[in-house]
Amino acid sequence: MVQQYWFWLTYYQRWSRELLILPVVLLLAACEQPVSTLDQIKQSNTLWVITRNSPTTYFQWRDQPTGFEYELARLFAKDLGVELKLVTANSLQDIFASISSGPHEHRFHIAAAGLSITKERQQRVRFGPPYMNVNLSLIYNTSQSRPTSLADLVGKRVMVMADSSHEERLQEASETLNLTWESTTEHEAMDLIKMVNDGEIDYSIVDSNVLAMNYIYFPKVRSAFDLQPSEQLAWALSPNTDAEFVARITQFFEKIRKNGTLDQLNERFYGHVDQLNYVGVKTFIQQTHKRLPKHEKQFKRVAKKYEMDWRLLAAIGYQESHWRARAKSPTGVRGLMMLTRPTAKEVGVKNRLDPQQSIRGGAKYFQKIKKRLPEEIKEPDRTWMALAAYNVGFGHLQDAREITRKLGGNANKWVDVKKSLPLLAKKQWFSQTRYGYARGYEPVLYVQNIRRYYDLLQWLTVPKDEASTTIQAAHSPGIYEPDKASSIKVN
């Protein structure tokens, strides 16, 4: 009887302890359950995105962040009601290494970097829904014979970005062809296009959207053919990303596709890829008769107020909008002088589509930039640099001047700085700068075009007997001289 008593007492005590321990075990088990990606993002109020500093992903333009991938990520963060934190990687390898570790082990929730969906990559990461189709273009220098197939690459110098879908295609082709190539982590697509243009390499492969955006800067580069099949771009996620977050991304893309936002972004960044082509003297002269008379008095009045040559101001207006008051660029700037919203607010313009306000705002902003330049920069270099900053942003101009110093050039001379601006599109250089990647070729063409338009306007507005001297001479830029009918100074 006593033995049975102790048995039940011992059983009761053990059972009681287990009942007390059970809630603790269940609580610990609950704590070990991973927090969903969406909950993690909302708790931290931050969406972490890793990307590339390139013209088709993310870059600074006129001192504002922009880029196709940046805009998509910004809209998604807004849709989630959280802040966007964007980090740029040095290479594709870094992007995949960062995202494959997963959102719970690493801070990045998404890789938004113009990444193609490939079989090899699908073994490493998970992809969201595709949002763009691209072709893989084999590019060549037009001074050489045009290749017609990958077999023509045998024995040639070919370079592609390391860990890219382009390299995967070459690896597949090398199973039947004796292909060799160089893979690089030191160059972006823009670098490779330039290297083909300059004859440093024979061939490369780039995405068709990248080529379309940048081919005008490289007159010797053409697409020989597109590799088949085409590819789809999508955001990359950790392979461990939960289904709820993938569904949320899918819902977001369905929404922006349905409401037209995705089409608007495509139009904004790719709809006018040839907008910087020089339209020709004939077209320009036609517009001086058709459109300029509507705004000439305003150009003159505003230029006088801000101590500029009205023809320089008009030349800026033509380069920006072709003197169209309701113009809108692929990057969202609007009006005759193509002002961004922040710039318009800074110079007191309430309606960017009002040509009088736009001209006044453009002149005011241009003069503010000129005043910010160091005093040691003299005319005419001061005007050319101010024009470059008007186009690409003051910060990027300063980066180019710093590169000029490093190369032993004169940072106060446009002839030297214009050689450095294109380097802002090269990873080797923009990775060392404060403001990062910029389409450095654009401000060089921008200034060059304005100088052409300015010379033409001077030629069209001076007495005929002076025209031949004027058009052939080197002029100082638009410095206002109130006692003269023209501000031209023939050297």
Which SSEs are present, and which pair or pack?
Elements: H1 2-32, H2 37-44, E1 46-51, E2 59-61, E3 64-66, H3 68-80, E4 83-88, H4 92-100, E5 110-116, H5 119-122, E6 126-127, E7 132-141, E8 159-161, H6 165-173, E9 182-184, H7 189-197, E10 203-207, H8 208-214, E11 221-237, H9 243-258, H10 261-270, H11 281-290, H12 292-305, H13 310-321, H14 341-346, H15 355-372, H16 381-392, H17 394-406, H18 414-420, H19 427-430, H20 441-461, H21 464-472
Parallel strand pairs: 1-4, 1-5, 8-9
Antiparallel strand pairs: 2-3, 5-11, 6-11, 7-10, 7-11
Helix pairs in contact: 12-13, 12-15, 13-20, 15-16, 16-17, 16-20, 17-18, 20-21
Structural class: alpha/beta
Residues in helices, as a percent range? 40-55%
The proportion of residues in beta strands is 5-15%
Low-confidence stretches: 1-12, 274-279, 464-491
Number of strands: 11
What number is the mean pLDDT? 85
| Global outline | globular
State the helix count: 21
Largest sheet composition? 7 strands, mixed
Radius of gyration (CA) equals: 29 Å
The N- to C-terminal Cα distance equals 125 Å
